[in-house]
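Q: I have 343 residues here and want to know how they pack in 3D. Can you give me a structure?
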Amino acid sequence: MNRPGAASGLAWGEAPLPRLAEQAVHEALAKLGRDRADAILLYLTPDFARDPSPALRAAARAGACLQVTGGLVHHPFTEQEAVLDHPAAAALVLSDLPDLPASLPRLTYRSHHPAARHHWEDGPRFGIECAPGPLWAQGRLQEAHEVGLPLPGLTVELATSHGLQLLAPPLEITAAQAHQLLQVGHSPALESLCRALPPEQRERPALHTLFVVPPAGPQAAVRILEALPDGRLILATPLPVGTPITWAARQPLAAETELQGQLHELAERCPAPLFGLMFACIGRGPWFHGGEERNLSSWQQRFAHLDLPLLGAYGDSQISPGAEGGARLIHNSVVTALIHPST
């Protein structure tokens, strides 16, 4: 039996035409030296939202494959390039997959919909919340709020970069009411936060970059939505009195350094990967890094010598395995997977 194969392709243009999906699949198959695929991961930009079906059919014809899975994503990228401001299609084709049980964690795509799940208790998952619009599986649009692609005979190694820099030692919440954080360490919440910041940021703290980290760690970080004149902070998630918390900031250099360290660790855990997947928060994109695509460049610095296929995308949220075996929707993170044949 042949060893499983994988390759990526990316095509972009001035209009969301089905031929972009066809070109992306043909490019990937040419890299593999195959004329058909066993499975295709297909990402389309939101420009295709009105009717992705023609693009799905084009990808299926190009790959002679009905197993086409994916959704609408922001700014798709491969190991070679990223597309920011044009209609685009990105594909990862898989060939010679063995007839074995699907691997864990499960690759999952979630729709941006109020009825879609935020937590999973039926086993570990990884993936992304796609842009508003339909998902697809088996080459057709789906009404379900989540879809997945089985990865038979493959093993998944994961890392999740939260990109947070802790600013101070933990302090206890001493007063709170619902989503209002009133006092931390017996000081007004805003005053406590400002003391943890560098002096030049204390007068006008950039709240969209600041978080409250509870004992569960960065994966459970809580966003600060608003600072009130009397020193109260409004949190995205309520935290009870007595909770020890740490102030943290989403900082570009810290985020990039963390991701690079994780890629190095993944490479050590998985010395012979078949391909990679990267799911990033749109808030961790080029705008966060001064206009540069630092997530892709970090991948290239670590894996360029392997010419390792990568399919990546940006979304509002990411899916990451939980500490107790399930999975949860997280934010402001980058989830990276290296995937290799099971032994």
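Q: Anything worth noting?
A: The chain has a mean pLDDT of 94. The CA atoms of residues 201 and 294 lie 24 Å apart.
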